[in-house]
Amino acid sequence: MASNPAYGFRLCSVGKNIIKRSKPKNYPAKKVELGQTIVRVIDENSKILVLHYNALDAKDWTDFRYAMKQEQATIKVFPNKLTCKFLSDTRYRNMTPLFRTDTCLAYGNDFDLKKILKILNTNDKVQLIGGKFDDTLFNRHQVIDYSKLPTLEQARAELVSILQQPSQALSGLLQTNQSQLSMLLQGYVDQQQEKGETDPPPQAE
């Protein structure tokens, strides 16, 4: 019988030399919807952290989710195989190597990375694997280095401070010169007044 290109071939699980035909895997509607949700979460959030968790019980999960939520980060567990499958056809396919163990995502747009890393450092059951910031993929060490950079607000404040320094110096110089000029004028006026008081009145002719 001729082979059908719509089917793939694989060896049976016990390793015998018997070739069986297997249909390509078709995901049910619920899994397709979940896969689309995974892509949407990564696409709509500028800050994504991939975390490895180990031996977290129900209370650990509750405490961990609450602590992260306080810092505006959402925690979600997605199936690794499904995640890799749906990311493989997107621009985020380079993230798939991060999903090789028990993983969860921490995501958001407004969380402070330094505060998030402090939470992770105090939890020995959760470790950082890597992350995505905007459209750039980071490994664990790069995420840590990235957290040491100033925030956009801090960078703007520093830039404004630098730009204001020349004008502040000029303003200070003008104020100093103005004060000195006022003192000189006042001294001259006082001197003239004293001179007028000590000089004899003019004699009538």
TrEMBL record:
CDD domains: Ribosomal_L10. Coiled coil: none annotated. GO terms for cellular component: ribonucleoprotein complex; ribosome. The keyword Ribosomal protein applies. InterPro entries: Ribosomal_uL10, Ribosomal_uL10-like_sf, Ribosomal_uL10_bac_type. Keywords: Ribonucleoprotein, Ribosomal protein. It comes from the Eukaryota. Transmembrane segments: none annotated. Belongs to the universal ribosomal protein uL10 family. This is Large ribosomal subunit protein uL10m. It comes from Clytia hemisphaerica.
